[in-house]
Specification:
Blueprint lengths: L1 E10 L3 E8 L9 H12 L5 E7 L2 E7 L6 E8 L8 H13 L6 H15 L3
Antiparallel strand pairs: 1-2, 1-5, 3-4, 4-5
Helix pairs in contact: 2-3
Amino acid sequence: MPVGIVLMKWDERVATEILLKYPEDKDFEITDKTLLHLLNLHEFSEKPGTSTLTVKRVNLITYYTGVEKGHYVILVLSILENPDDFIEIFEEIAQEIIENLEEEKYKEIIPSLFKKLEETSLF
């Protein structure tokens, strides 16, 4: 079962800035160290793309928009979930979030997008 979605932006003055954490009422945490690790995964290529990472008891999938926008969409999964089962649907959802960054429209659609991810879950 997906645990949550995080939208992060890189800002040279404040470093990693979390723009959204959904669901808000769910208690999950991504440390600054983990966010920096995700940042480093994408930093060298500077190209948009998806990566996966396992940290402690969670699996993470991250989509990076590239240098131009500097946004990261992160899907937090339980350790029992295989990230490969979610990559295709996650990339579609990440694109929808990125396309709705203006005026924070992504906040309106995130509940339905997260529901799609929950329906993908095998557990």
